[in-house]
Here is the input.
Amino acid sequence: MGYFITLEGVEGSGKSTLIQHLKDFIERKGIEVIVTREPGGIDISEQIRSVILDTRNTKMDGRTEALLYAAARRQHLVERIIPLLQEGKVVLCDRFIDSSLAYQGYARGLGIDEVLTINEFAIGNFMPDLTLYMDLDPQIGLNRIRNNKGREVNRLDLEEIHFHMKVREGYEAILERFPERIVRVDANQELDKVFSDTKEIVLDRAKSIFH
Ligand code: TYD
Here is the structure.
């Protein structure tokens, strides 16, 4: 079996930059790494993603949103992630179940337990081996996004700052719940320091990758 690492955090916390850096770092050690993302990563899930994130879908109910994320996650897991892990690869995924727990469970107020339950239906007891949580003040993250004109703006980016603050609180609650799986990274530091902190965590927690 390979090794499954997920990255989590509020908008603009630098997950996509970090994921590429982490990929290079692990690959330099001669290990094959696949990068993927949620919601999406494969055709069916990308199609579901476009429905969820379409800025025209302002009427979308919270539970509908949670179920669509869980459906996209299920398909991505069985079609892509599990087969890659069975081939012994390291899989790095930009967002996974904790995004649903923080965004839909906590910030949308559906309840962390309720959202965990529908996700258990979707993915059984399959959980990441390690989760890196990029911790950042959401206002800093949103400012970063707004300064990055090339980035697409999606339906959730348009939520008020208050919503993103709740997302961060949600992540705090989840961190307390899964302390052995999730590790916090201080994302409000120079990029080099964020990278070096992350490398240390991975070398320490994911020892089995490096033998
Ligand atoms: P994306 O463009 O991938 O944003 P980011 O670069 O911040 O990851 O859009 C994903 C959006 O979907 C993001 O706002 C977080 C949200 N999301 C949820 O609300 N629940 C989920 O389960 C997942 C996977 C994402």
Summary: Residues 12 and 140 are 8 Å apart (CA to CA). Residues 62-86 form the longest helix (25 residues).
